[in-house]
UniProtKB/TrEMBL annotation:
This protein's UniProt keywords: Isomerase
Organism: Lutimaribacter degradans
Name of the encoding gene: alr
Enzyme class: isomerase
Protein name: Alanine racemase
Known EC number: 5.1.1.1
Length: 345
């Protein structure tokens, strides 16, 4: 058995959802786009539905269609990209709720599926998705007479609590939505942590569920154990890996482990990253290959049979920092080669 093992802790996801839910007095949805941030949308969403989540969010209708098969009828499945050309059958047949982003999408939806539910996504300053104030002003009266389920917007700087953009977006969102009688949603993980002004009637956490920053209290969710294939002794001045980028300064013992950048272990993190044997950190040495990584296990006894690449010692953000990226990218890059296990008591 050589493939590395990726264990997703469903109990930890459930605990993270409950902990985020406990921070607000409103409803808590769950964002499960990109295959549940790489953790497996079916298992994740079914567990969260069991915990009490009633609304889910995905990025595109195809993800919503797959999620509906997993969840069955009942839970609301909301699609951030709205109602795109070609999506009508999926939205209608599988009861998806598009977050309408523009006048075009609104007309398409009302024409193709009269009476079908929809939400509205508003742009409160991020300039990514959603209607701008003027467009919304022209459509608002029409929208509220239809089957409108929620209005939402998204914060650009919620992971920086002191950023002036946060308060500015809340003000804009309020100006655009005060007086409406439908649920409002502004906060993702970062917005939940900004406090009650940001909660409205519904929050939409994603990364915090999966153990990532900015939810510092999160329990780790993704655990990766990698088998050691071979261990060798190297003498001073010997090199390890492609390009001879690492040179032994002293006698060292080098383990070659069975994972690489094809498994989402970003090549650029090489020089900064550690793996763990029990409680001992072991430095990654040399370039990360597609399927193999060199690790300095000098002094580790007995010879390790496997190392921890992600888990309690190495969180997704620790690896992200080593790679100069964010935990979201580490999670969604975890490849298809792992032996996947789900932990649930
Ligand atoms: C991805 C996303 C979320 C979830 O964000 P996290 O930072 O992962 O909690 C919420 N809302 C929108 C619009 C998103 O794109």
């Amino acid at each position: 058995m050589t493939a590395a093992t990726l264990t997703i802790d469903l109990d930890a996801i459930a605990a993270n959802w409950r902990a985020l839910d406990a921070k607000t007095a409103c409803e808590t949805a769950a964002v499960v786009k990109a295959d549940g941030y790489g953790c497996g949308v079916g298992r994740v969403a079914r567990r969260l539905a069991h915990e009490g989540a009633r609304r889910f969010f995905v990025a595109v209708a195809e993800e919503g269609a797959a999620l509906r098969q997993e969840l069955g009828p009942g839970p609301e499945i909301n699609v951030f990209s709205g109602h795109m050309p070609g999506d009508t059958d999926m939205i209608g047949d599988l009861a998806l709720t598009p977050m309408i982003n523009s006048l075009d999408q609104m007309l398409r939806h009302l024409e193709a599926l009269p009476g079908a539910p929809f939400g509205i996504q508003l742009d409160s300053g991020m300039n990514r998705l959603g209607m701008e104030p003027a467009e919304w002003g022209a459509l608002r009266d029409l929208a509220v007479q239809q089957n409108l389920t929620m209005v939402m917007s998204h914060l650009a700087c919620a992971d920086e609590p002191d950023h002036a953009m946060n308060a500015q977006q809340v003000r804009t969102f309020r100006q655009m939505t005060d007086g409406l009688s439908v649920p409002r949603s502004l906060a993702a993980t970062g917005g939940i942590l900004l406090g009650p002004d940001y909660h409205f009637e519904l929050t939409r956490p994603g990364v915090g569920l999966y153990g990532g920053r900015p939810f510092a209290e999160a329990q780790p969710v993704a655990h990766v154990q990698v088998p050691v294939i071979q261990i060798r002794d190297v003498e001073p001045d010997e090199t390890v890996g492609y390009g001879n980028t690492w040179v032994a300064r002293a006698p060292a013992r080098i383990a070659t482990i069975a994972a690489g950048y094809a498994d989402g272990i970003i090549r650029g993190m090489g020089a900064q990253a550690y793996v763990w044997v029990g409680d001992t950190p072991c430095k990654v040495v040399g370039r990360i290959s597609m399927d193999l990584i060199g690790v300095d296990v000098t002094g580790v006894t007995p010879d390790p049979e496997a190392v921890e690449l992600l888990g309690h010692h190495n969180g997704v953000d620790t690896l992200a920092d080593a790679a100069g990226t964010i935990g979201y990218e580490i999670l969604t890059s975890l490849g298809a080669r792992y032996r996947r296990r789900y932990h649930s008591t």
